[in-house]
């Protein structure tokens, strides 16, 4: 695997409070796509049930920026669509549903090959960021369907918890996100997890990763105390997680 080909932008969410769809990440998305001369985007809408409605929403956003969007669900051959894509945008929704579809349509390996071996840009948001990781074990979503495996695309060697929330003391006695991630890390071999707060992005190029946005991120590693990293931090050490 030639990790120098890796060109990935992972968003915690598509919408932040009080803002339009993808608006908070407009500059980062455009800078990322223009750097690689992208004009066409293959959208993967499988995380939601109404593919047409979802595709229309995404098309409206990207067309304003001058990009043409093709949704993979309109293709007769999803594998061929992946093989011809200039860039991928994998949208948010339910992570289990998204991953199951990636397996059902047999595009796990084709996407991984194009991103890691051919340098095709990949943008993920929420569930689309989850499936870029080692596994979907740290998603916040309910398992409304059953994918054949929790193993995801493996474009990066760690996991993400999108929409990460800090503990907010109330009378609620359920586990915090931090406690749930600590439970996950009791499983032998579990990778590090990035608690990615709303409005934050991970920008990955080759073997370099930068935390982008206005918020810090909380990083959990097995056997260690969680650590906070401010926006703009170099998180390249995470790419050497395994």
TrEMBL record:
The keyword Transmembrane does not apply. It catalyses: Dipeptidase E catalyzes the hydrolysis of dipeptides Asp-|-Xaa. It does not act on peptides with N-terminal Glu, Asn or Gln, nor does it cleave isoaspartyl peptides. It is an enzyme of class 3 (hydrolase). One of its GO terms (cellular component) is cytoplasm. It is found in: Cytoplasm. It comes from the Eukaryota. One of its GO terms (biological process) is proteolysis. Its EC number is 3.4.13.21. InterPro entries: Class_I_gatase-like, Peptidase_S51. Keywords: Cytoplasm, Dipeptidase, Hydrolase, Protease, Serine protease. One of its GO terms (molecular function) is serine-type peptidase activity. Hydrolyzes dipeptides containing N-terminal aspartate residues. Belongs to the peptidase S51 family. This is dipeptidase E.
